[in-house]
Write a structure and sequence with these properties.
Its cofactor is Mg(2+). The protein has about 140 residues and is α+β, with helices and mostly antiparallel strands. The protein has three helices and seven strands. It has one domain: Nucleoside Triphosphate Pyrophosphohydrolase (Alpha-Beta Complex), CATH 3.90.79.10.
Length: about 140
């Protein structure tokens, strides 16, 4: 993995959009790899202020999700990025959103989400530490 010219890893904020009553998580397709599924995530920007705000913004831009960040889950460092995961309790989904022409979204249960995210170790690890994960 390259740092794309950065001297420090990129700060990535990731939302885990949850429908608590249904026990489901919302996954979306990747723009770069349309056959792969991801969680809404993206780089922190100074205008976001706090990391939670970036996770919430990314969920709205990438998945049309409106809701409330309810829990910090974990931080996972990698060679090129540092991922910060937050649970987001979904209150609504926009019919049209910034990236609606570029992505699909789907509600799935924890087991299915784990399968779909398995190609990206950081994402499945973050999900495994969420409150949706089966108790060990």
């Amino acid at each position: 993995m390259s740092n794309k010219g950065r001297t420090t890893p990129r700060v990535v904020c990731c939302a885990i959009p949850i429908a608590r009553s249904a026990g489901k998580v919302l996954v979306i397709t990747s723009r770069k790899r349309p056959n792969n599924w991801v969680l809404p995530k993206g780089g922190w920007e100074p205008s976001d202020g706090v990391l939670e705000a970036a996770a919430s913004r990314e969920a709205l831009e990438e998945a049309g999700v409106r809701g409330t960040i309810t829990r910090f889950v974990t931080t996972i460092p990698s060679a090129s990025s540092t991922y910060h995961f937050y649970e987001l309790d979904v209150q609504g989904l926009d019919a049209e959103w910034l990236e609606s022409k570029e992505r699909r979204r789907e509600w799935v249960d924890y087991a299915e989400a784990s399968k779909r995210l398995a190609w990206k170790a950081e994402l499945v690890q973050g999900l495994s530490l969420s409150s949706l994960a089966p108790k060990r």
